[in-house]
Specification:
There is one protein chain. By secondary structure, the protein is mainly β. It has strands at residues 8-14, 20-27, 44-54, 57-67, 71-76, 81-86, 91-100, 104-113. The chain has a single domain (8-113), classed as Jacalin-like lectin domain (Vitelline Membrane Outer Layer Protein I, subunit A, Aligned Prism). The strands form 3 sheets. A 4-stranded antiparallel β-sheet has the order 5-4-3-6, with no helix packed on it. It has a two-stranded antiparallel sheet with strand order 1-2. The protein is globular, with a radius of gyration of 14 Å. InterPro entries: Jacalin-like_lectin_dom, Jacalin-like_lectin_dom_plant, Jacalin-like_lectin_dom_sf. Residues 1-113 form the Jacalin-type lectin domain. This is Jacalin-type lectin domain-containing protein.
């Protein structure tokens, strides 16, 4: 969810048994939700955004997710220090880890080699 900054992030997926699983949210409860849906053959190749001081904490101010098919975002306000986490050819992003308070403060990725 985002407004001026990235307030929180959560993920849902369908597991191998066909059940919806949700992780998160991490961060606060403000902002507007944004839903993205990935196709079965779509993989995450990069995340990027910005971070800056906001209301007494350093937070993620904008967030963008890039797949092998399309780009989602950016959400929030593209203001502050740029961050970019690409993966090299033969790899993809398989998961995320975060730190959040009232807003999303940090995000990282788990990469997996496809080759």
């Amino acid at each position: 969810m985002s407004g001026e900054v990235i307030d929180s992030i959560a993920f849902s997926y369908i597991d191998q048994a066909g059940k919806k699983q949700t992780t998160g949210p991490w961060g606060g409860s403000g902002g507007s939700p944004h839903t993205i849906k990935l196709a079965a053959s779509e993989v995450v190749k990069e995340i990027s955004g910005t971070y800056a001081p906001y209301q007494g904490a350093t937070v993620i101010t904008s967030f963008k997710l890039v797949t092998n098919v399309q780009t989602f975002g950016p959400w929030g306000t593209e203001d502050g220090t740029p961050l970019r986490v690409p993966v090299q050819s033969g790899s993809q992003i398989e998961g995320f880890f975060t730190r959040g308070g009232v807003h999303l403060e940090a995000i990282g990725v788990y990469k997996w080699s496809t080759s």
